[in-house]
Amino acid sequence: MAEVLQQIINGVVVGAAYALIATGLTVIFGLIKVVNFAHGEFYMVGAVFMYYLVMAAGINYFAALPLAVILAMVVGLLADRLLLKPLRNAAESTTTLAMIGLSVLLQNLVMVTSGPMPKMIAMPFSPAPIHMGPLLVQSNRIFAGVVTLVVIVAADWALRSSPAGRDIRATFQDRDAAALVGIPVDKIYRMTFTVGSGMAALAGALLGSIFMVNPTMGEMAVGKAFTIVIVGGLGNFRGAVFVGLLLGVVEALAAGYISAGYKDAIGFIIVVAVLLYKPMAQAWQIRKVRAG
Amino acid sequence: MNKRRNMLLYAIIALALLFLPWLANTYRLHLVIVALIHILMSAGLNLILGYFGEMSLGHAAFFGIGAYATALAALKFGCSMPVSILAGALCATLLGWLVAFLCLRVRGPYFVIVTLSVASILHIVAINWVNVTNGPMGLMGLRAPVLELGSVSLSFSNKVVFYYLMILLVGSWLLVINRLINSHVGRAWIAIREHEELASSIGVNRYAFGLCAVMLAAAMAGLGGGLYAFYISIVSPDVFAFSFMIIWLIMVITGGKGTMWGPVLGSVLFTVIPELLRAVDTYRLVIFGIVLLLVTLFMPQGILPMITRLLEGYSNRTPRIKVVDGGADGGANLHRKD
Known about the structure:
The structure holds two protein chains of two kinds.
Chain A: H1 2-32, H2 39-56, H3 61-84, H4 92-114, E1 130-132, E2 135-137, H5 139-161, H6 163-173, H7 175-180, H8 185-210, H9 217-232, H10 237-257, H11 265-277, H12 279-291
Chain B: H1 2-23, H2 26-52, H3 59-76, H4 81-103, H5 108-128, H6 130-133, E1 139-140, E2 146-149, E3 152-155, H7 159-181, H8 184-194, H9 196-201, H10 206-232, E4 234-235, H11 242-255, H12 262-276, H13 284-298, H14 303-315
Antiparallel strand pairs in B: 1-4, 2-3
């Protein structure tokens, strides 16, 4: 029993980070309706900035965390300005390809500048685990989990209650109508993309310090994020949080009890299964969003 | 007159292709063969992406299953090359049916994700099912056979022989595609792509035509995978990798999706460009990414439609009606202003 709980605790920390990546993506995906393959690269870029800030520039870990996120958000802002804005009226497949191009560019830029070797980020916590009854939890994992949950709750509040969040939801529902009532749609796009990328970068900076930083870490992350977005529902913020946590736990349990090698297949199988059993609901949802 | 000129052009191209092995060295011939395999793949993908109008990222799944099934048939069951390649194509077609069955329920970004999921699952299986697939090491030792025709023996490990085999296959595949897209099937695909509800109102069955497009493309991709397996004589899980499948996507979209020759042009260009960039080794993929971004930014319709537009602009100076990209964005003009 303790072992199961231990797996669940480990899963929750990873799942919280998944949720953070996926919530950023679900809002971007819901808004620009494009398969944003570059989202995983922002996760990676966040981790890489974190590595350079902490290990190369020697900045305090807690100061480096927001700095890394801001730097990644600048990259996101540039991407929106130079790439998404000119393509706002282009075909879906063209924009998707542009995002793939951005992903190739970012990944290889990092590969060239910092090499393919996985890197460690030193954390200001003692590596000794904390005992909670029969459970062992490392303090860096607790820190990552807490930061993630705080940001998710704050983002959820902002999306539901702040004026900017209201504008985002309005644009999400019907961007032409939103434009008609004077919502600066272009600014909403830019803000959403930048903040969404920042959330991926935060997840990367946190998970990168727990595991390793390498240039290809974004590829798996983007697959997971899309899984979560689909199962949780397009643009559904709380759905993404719930499914993200669930996926983290299920993966941890599967790695422990079934097979570590097949762990990463679970999300994909769930997606296929969901679409097999709930095709009509999904199809309806897409029509609604596409019409919007 | 125009038709005659076209015939002459085709004759010149055919002659050039026929005598190419005498003009190219081994390395260039290798590139040509790779480009031909890519044409086989991207022309099929174009049926789904360009004509039917859904973006499939599962093409690597068909390619990979074709390659693995061919390799397994040849290595574990000792089948001959044609039989094992056909077995690969058959497996890919069956997978195509399954993928179509799963994916045709959904549209747009969902279609992309489900096709991608299928390929990712197969990728993970290929890495982990070591008993059958030999894991990350891959299956090795495929030998192309020697065909004895009386006193002449044709070895398929010879690049020249392989080149003619590929030319034959790609040529017939392009002919089939050309006939298809000019038939009622092609018109049905375009009707579905342009306006699904309208198409279904006049009795165009999306599922049936989608199944047709996906299974055809899958069969060809399986064939391509089998040929590839025999050509490079090793099959590793990389054939399912994301980096592998985006190359065909790039070829189709930058070449010009929904055009007959766009993917062909794209395949040739994006086989040659990465090779040219070998000179700048480390920055190769960085520059590749930049090239990709520039093409999508400045030629969102693709290179071939761009060229045709330029040529038409020079030959007849009538003002052209600008074709608006349909679908995704109806009232986009409303907020074009910042």
